[in-house]
Amino acid sequence: xxxxxxxxxxxIELTIEKLLQESAKGKSIxxxxxxxxxxxxxxxxxxxxxxxxxxxxxxxxxTTEIETLDSKEVILLLDFDRRGxxxxxxxxxxxxxxxxxxxLRFWIDLQALVGREIHCIESLPNYIYNLHKKxx
Length: 136
Description:
Layout: H1 3-24, E1 28-31, H2 34-42, E2 49-51, H3 59-68, E3 73-76, H4 82-97, E4 101-103, H5 105-114, H6 124-135
Parallel strand pairs: 1-2, 1-3, 3-4
Helix pairs in contact: 1-5, 1-6
């Protein structure tokens, strides 16, 4: 059993726990699609999750939807691939222009922990499950 894997799993779970706390406080989370939403629900997120790519929405429509929440801060948790990174930067720019605070802490932390091994949020529950199996 690798202590490195165990430490990595603990850091991932701590990050997820903090994400659950922020969601429980009412902060909305923005993900790319329905499978990402399902993955976060599987991990225990019970708060508002908005999807960027469902229903044929474009960036303007997604930004407008976020703006109508009247939220002071949103958590961006898009995928870690090239398209996800580009979308994160664009959405961050658009939301900050609307005076909405963008929280990238979870995206940055998770990307640093798992970004080389998985590229999408929807893979996170299975990745964590496999880490548990490897560390037992």
